[in-house]
Design brief:
Layout (H helix, E strand, L loop, with lengths): L21 H29 L9 H8 L2 H29 L3 H28 L20
Helix pairs in contact: 1-3, 3-4
Protein name: Succinate dehydrogenase
Pfam family, one: Sdh_cyt
Subcellular location: Membrane
Length: 149
């Protein structure tokens, strides 16, 4: 009498697919972007809330002065991109876990992708095209760091 053959636990039910393992790279992205976001967010909070006059210093002129500096532009864009892609990837994971029909899953993931893409494009445009000193504005409405027109 031969013993029954028991397959090894966690053996794949079907052969592994060839190509890029997007779930693995999504998982890695979540960990790496989470750590980077912690650094970016706490740096942002430290500069905005703890240096200078604290929260009292935040006004249009403060934000305009920060966004006039390429360092802070890239800091904010990195924070924006990482946070939106991180959140979109998390929502994609939830849709994969809870959406039962293929059609609804595709529609939801398409909506998530579209929302993330639109917000990234608009946010990046705002950061890089923001002009706190628009030409032709009355001098009394401009921040103190703008040259008088």
């Amino acid at each position: 009498m031969t013993a029954p053959v028991i397959e090894a636990p966690r053996s794949p039910a079907r052969p592994a697919r060839k190509g890029v393992n997007w779930e693995k790279w999504g998982w890695i992205y979540m960990r790496v972007s989470g750590v980077l976001l912690l650094v970016l967010i706490f740096g942002h909070l430290f500069v905005n809330l703890l240096t200078g006059d604290g929260v009292d210093q935040i006004d249009f002129g403060f934000v305009g002065g920060k966004l006039a500096t390429p360092f802070w532009q890239w800091w904010d864009v990195a924070m924006l991109w990482l946070a939106l892609i991180h959140g979109g990837n998390g929502m994609r994971t939830l849709v994969n876990d809870y959406a039962t029909h293929r059609t609804s899953r595709r529609i939801l993931k398409g909506a998530i992708f579209a929302a993330v893409a639109v917000l990234i494009i608009l946010g990046t445009l705002v950061v890089f095209t923001f002009d706190p000193c628009p030409a032709g504005s009355p001098a009394d409405l401009l921040p103190s760091f703008c040259p008088a027109s």
